[in-house]
Specification:
Length: about 230
Amino acid sequence: MSEQSEQDITVVHVMRHGEVDNPDGVLYGRLPGYHLSELGRQMADRVAEHLAGRDVTHVAASPLERAQETATPIAKAHGLDLGTDERLIEAENIFQGKTFGVGDGALKNPANWKYLVNPFRPSWGEPYVDQVVRMRGALDAARDRARGHEAVLVSHQLPIWILRSYIERRRLWHDPRKRQCTLASLTTFTYQGDRIVSVGYSEPAIDLVPVHLRAGAKPVKGKDKAFGA
């Protein structure tokens, strides 16, 4: 690496998609056909406006519709083609297609117990370590594409939180209610050369996010189903 490239400052914003149209509260995971709600589209537009003055030279998203639709106005605002990176996809989950949330009795159902034996892996879905590997790969690829500038990647709550936890040297297993990764939020990684020197977090569309869905909100029975993220 040249001396100049070692001093390059590159910023990669990893965004969680906006609200999804999901009236039945399904944990949609990697299922196709789940699009942004009208509110979700407003969130996407708000973040596009927030980033309009930034030096963004690369935009990519998970292949799932909600991520693609969130990234589209950002790419458009910068006159860029929207890329797709499979590594940004939602985590696999055995409960995909079901409702599974606070107060719905899922944890009391014996049929689910075999999937809940190891929260440290976790046993119900894609291993945390596997999520780290693919998300870090996508992050570094975006750094290379936008070196000396900024990039935006649109992904999903759990993979973003696991990536941040790894970078900040926290344990990967965690309480899902304590993730700091609200809808349409930005988790921002700043590189100097190839090295991450800081991690930031912001919520440009927080006024559009329902109170019960904000980071740290107290779970509300009937409202906090694990819709997928």
